[in-house]
Structure formats: structure tokens, C-alpha cells
Amino acid sequence: MAVFLSRSEEETLRWAEQYAKTLRAGDVVLLEGEMGAGKTVLAKGLCRGLGITCEVTSPTYAYINDYGGVYHFDCYRLPSEEYAERLGFAEYFSAGGVCLVEWGERIANLLPADAKRIVLKKRGEREREIGF
Ligand SMILES: Nc1ncnc2c1ncn2[C@@H]1O[C@H](COP(=O)(O)OP(=O)(O)OP(=O)(O)O)[C@@H](O)[C@H]1O
Ligand SMILES: [Mg+2]
Fold first, then answer.
1. I need a labelling partner for 99 at 20 to 30 A (CA). Which of 90, 106, 107, 123 fits?
2. What is the average per-residue pLDDT within 114-118?
3. Ligand 1 site, residue 43, Cβ cutoff 6 A
4. CB 100 less than 6 A from any atom of ligand 1
5. Which domain range does residue 64 map to?
6. Does residue 92 belong to any structural domain of this protein?
7. Beta-carbon count within 10 A of 25 CB
8. Residues 98, 10: contact at Cβ < 8 Å?
């Protein structure tokens, strides 16, 4: 895994905006890291890089935000994998859009084997190691 050391939220946003240029239709990207690591910040930067102009907020309560071809998932509060299955998560993953997934660990069996991973590690109040 390559590593980028971010020293601020703005640097993470800019890094993600660049990384987004490597994404292709159909990609599923797992955003990993502890609470407050910056997964949602990453998702904001990725959306920006993918040309999404509307405000990107955490889908914690709705599970999925649909930005038109870009889908942002937060699985933290999902009651179960079966529940995600019933919501049609697998169909989203194979629909040809770009899927950004927070807390994908909760739905491990539904994720495609070729999903990409971005791993955030807190190294200080504002320092984050971004593995990709
Ligand atoms: N270098 C950095 N990169 C990203 N976020 C940073 C950085 N430094 C500080 N932060 C702060 O860390 C917090 C990250 O919050 P964020 O909601 O993105 O975390 P999260 O991983 O999505 O958490 P959760 O698991 O609760 O969804 C924000 O308050 C942000 O301002
Ligand atoms: Mg989040």
C-alpha cells in the first residue's frame, strides 16, 4: 500500500480530489478507519473530484446518499447484513456507478472482491496517514 501523510482536512480533501481521477465507472471504494478518522471528509473530496457539486454530508441515518451515479454508503448503523441485502446494496455495487462505502466491514459478504480500499489512520489531531 502507498501512503500519503495528510496534515489537515483541506489536504485530505485535495488528495481525495486527485485520487478520484483514477476511479472508473463500477468502482466500489471502501473508506476504512476509526470513528473521526476522516472517512466522510474523504468521501467529500472524492465526490468533488468526480464532479459532484452539491453538498456531501454523512449518510449515517439514511444509509445511502445518491448523488446521481455516485453513491455514498455509511453502514455503521445498519442493523444487519440481511437488512442491507434487502435495501438492495448488492444491486448498487453492480449498477455501474461509483460506490463510496464507510464501515463496509459490517457488510463484508456483500462487497465485491475487487473493491478498492483507502485506509485512514489518525497520527495526531490533524495528521492522518492515508493508505491506498
Ligand atoms: N488531516 C485530516 N483529514 C481529515 N479530517 C481531519 C484531518 N484533520 C482533522 N480532521 C477532522 O477529523 C474529523 C473527521 O471526521 P469524519 O466525519 O470525516 O470522520 P469519519 O471517519 O467519517 O467518522 P465516522 O466513523 O463517525 O463516520 C473532522 O472533524 C475533520 O475536520
Ligand atoms: Mg463518516
1. 123
2. 98
3. no
4. no
5. 10-107
6. yes
7. 9
8. no
In a domain, 127, yes or no: no
**Closest-lying ligand 1 atom to the alpha carbon of residue 33:** 21
With pLDDT > 70 as the criterion, what percentage of the chain qualifies? 98
Specify the CATH number for the domain of residue 96.
3.40.50.300
43 close to 31: Cβ distance less than 8 angstroms: yes
Give the total number of structural domains in the chain: 1
- Sign of the dihedral defined by the CA atoms of residues 73, 108, 94, 117, in that order: positive
Residue 70 contacts residue 50 (beta carbons within 8 Å): yes
The answer to whether residue 31 is domain-embedded is yes
Can you give the pLDDT at residue 128?
98
Task: Tell me, yes or no, whether 116 lies in a domain.
Answer: no
Give residue-wise pLDDT tens across range 35-82: 999 999 999 999 999 999 999 998 866 799 999 999 999 999 999 999
